[in-house]
Amino acid sequence: MYIQLFSIHGLIRGQSPELGRDADTGGQVKYVLELAKTLAQRADVDKVDLFTRFIEDKTVSPDYSRQIEPLGDKVRIVRIRCGGRRYIRKELLWPHLEEFIDKTIKFIKKEQHIPDVFHGHYADAGYVAMELAAAFDRPFVFTGHSMGRNKREKLLGEGLSLERINRQYRMDSRINVEEDIIEKAGLIITSTQQEIDKQYGLYQNYALGRYTVIPPGIDIDTFYPYYNYQLDAEHIPEIVKQASVALLKELHRFWSQPEKPFILVLCRPDQRKNIAGLIEAYGTNPELQAIANLAVFAGIRQNIAKMEENERDVLTEMLLQMDRFDLYGKLAIPKKHDFATEVPSLYRLCAESRGVFVNPALVEPFGLTLIEASACGVPIVATKEGGPVDIIKNCNNGILVDARQPEDIGEAIKSILIDEKKWDMFSNNGITGVRNHYSWPSHCHNFVKELHDVFPEVREVDKRHAGERDANKKPSFGARLTGLNKILITDIDNTLIGEDDSLHKLLKLLERYKSTLAWGVATGRSLDLALEAMSEHRIPIPDILICSVGTEIYYGPDLRKDKGWQKHISHRWKPEQVKEVLADLDFLTFQEAEGQRSVKISYYMEENADHLAEVHRRLQDNRLRCQVIYSHGQFLDILPHRASKGKAINYIRYKYEFPSSKIMVAGDSGNDEDMLKGKNNALVVGNHSDELNGLKGKPRMFFSKHEYAAGIIDGLVHYNFFPPHIMDTV
Asked: What is the DSSP string of 21-36?
C-alpha cells in the first residue's frame, strides 16, 4: 500500500517536534509522526507520505521550509505551499484549503503515484483528504482528534459568545465540513468509544458514519519506567542524564523545598486544558501544598505579550493565580522544554519523587500524555470527560474527577500522595497496562486490518500494479488527468457541433485515443444548457467541462465541480456593485435567470463600439476589476477579473501540469478569443466569425479550411495529436 496522511495545521518535523509551542502543536503532531513511521515499518506498506504545510518564516525554524523531509526508508514529510509563507494558526487556513488540494494534485502528477488511501487528521485535513479521495476514487479515512460541536458547547459553557467563537475558531465552517466528512468517510478512527458517543453523537450525520476504536500508542523504548533508570544507570544515554540534570536545576529555581513530591501537568496553554482549575485546586488546599510542589509545563513561551490571545490569556491567568494564592516557592512554571529528551525524563523525575501526573482538561478526546506518564510509572488524575475513562478502565492506574470542581481535583491528588500502597498499585498498573493496550505496532496492525475489512480494493493492492484499476471500472477524473499529458479543449456551438458526420468521426477518434488524450469543452453555456446540447447530439460526458464563459469547471463522468477554481476567481468579485453601476444603461437587457451565475452577470446588447466602451468606462471608474466579454453580436458577459475560458484552461494546465505544447484549444468566435490567444496550440475552425480574423499569423495559431468538428480533427493532425492519415477519413 501507499498511504497519504494529512495534518496540515501544525508545525511538524521529524526531529525534536515542538510540542506545546502553541495551541496547534499538541499531541496530534506526535500522533501523526508515530503513525507514519510505524506504518512504514510494515512489510505490507510500500510508502507513507505525511503532508503538512510549507512554512518559510523567520519566527520559526527553517526545518519547516524543507519541501521533502525523509523520516525513514519508506516514509517522508511532504510540505505543500498554501496561504502564503508565514506561519498562521489553523483557523486562518480554512480559506486556503483549495490551494492545498490543487498543489497536492500537482505533487501526485509529478510523482506519478496515486495513493491507495487518503487519511485526514482533524477537520481541515479531513476536508483535504476527502476532496482528494473523491478526485482519485480512493478510500477516505478520517481521524478527528477533536470535534467542533463538542468544542463549541464547552466554549459556550465558559461564557464565550457564538459571535466570538465563530470569529476566532471559524466554528460554523468547521462543523459543516465535519458533517460532510462523517457522511463521506469510508472509515472513522477514534481513540475511545466515548469519543464516538459524546462527540460524533452530536452530529446530524452521526448514524451515517462507520466508526472503529483504535487507541494510539507510544514508544516504550523512550517512555520506560523510572526504576529502569535507577537500576541500569550506566546504560542510560548521556543526553538523557543531561536532560534530567537540566530539568532538576530549572525546577529547583522555583521551589523552596525541592525534596517534596511534585504534581505535574504538561499541556498547551489553552483554555480547554483548564490549567487554572488545577492551580485553584492546589492554591485552595493548604494540606496539599504542604505535601507536594506543583510544576506546570504549559508549552513554550518567550514573550507572553506577543502570543496569540488564547495562549496569552491562559499564561497571564497562571501568573495572576500564583500571586493570588501566594504560591511562590511552591509552583514552577518553566518557559520551555524539549520534547524528545526532556519530557520522558520529566515523567521519570515525577515518578522518582513519588508524585502525580494530572490532566485537568474540561474534555480530553484521548490524553496521550496520560499514557506516556503511566508508562514511566506516574499515577494519574484525569478528567472524566473523554479518553481518560478508557485509559483508567484498561490500566486501573489513577482517579477520574469532575474537572469543573477544583476541590475534587485536589482531594484526588492528595489521596494518592498520602497512600503509599495506592501509589505503588497505580504506578505498577500503569506500566503494565500501557504495554498491553497502547503500542503503535498494535495500532497499525488494527488499522491495516480495518482497511482490509472495509475497503476490498485495499485488500487487493498486492495483487495489482500500483495505479492499476479494475479493467471494467472507468478511472477517476483525477487518475485520468494526472496520468495523461495531452488534452483537447473545444467550444461547443459552431465548433464541436454544426455538422453531424464529422462530429461522430471526431468522437470515435477521441474514444480510440483516450489512453493518450484527454478532452473537454469550454462554452459560454451554463452546465445545464451545455449538457442539453451534448445530449441532443449524443456527445458523451468529456473529461472536463468549462461552462458559463469560464466561470465554472466540472470533471466527468459525475460532474465534480472544481471548488479551487471557484475560490480563485471569487477574489475581489463584487457582483452587486457591478449590477448597480450598469443598472441605468438602457442599451443593456438583463438575460434570463438561467444565464446568470454567482460569478457571471450576463446581458443582451446590440453591437455598438460606443456602448461597449461605456461599459468598460463605468467599471473602471468604480474600480471594479472585471472581465468584459462580448460575442456573437448580442451577448455581453461580466466576469471576475480572474475568470475566462482562457484562464480556466491555464488553471487546469497548472493544476494537472499539462505542457502548453500538449494542449490544443479550438473555437470559432470572439467568445473564444482569450483562450485562443494563450500559449497553447490554437485551432480556429473554417466557419469562424470575422471577430477572429485579427488572430491570423499569430504564433501557434492554425486556421483550418475545414468546418466544425472536421476542423478540430484537422487541427489535431496539424499539431501531431493524431497521425496524418486520419484526415483521409474526413
From this structure: SSTTSSHHHHHHHHHH
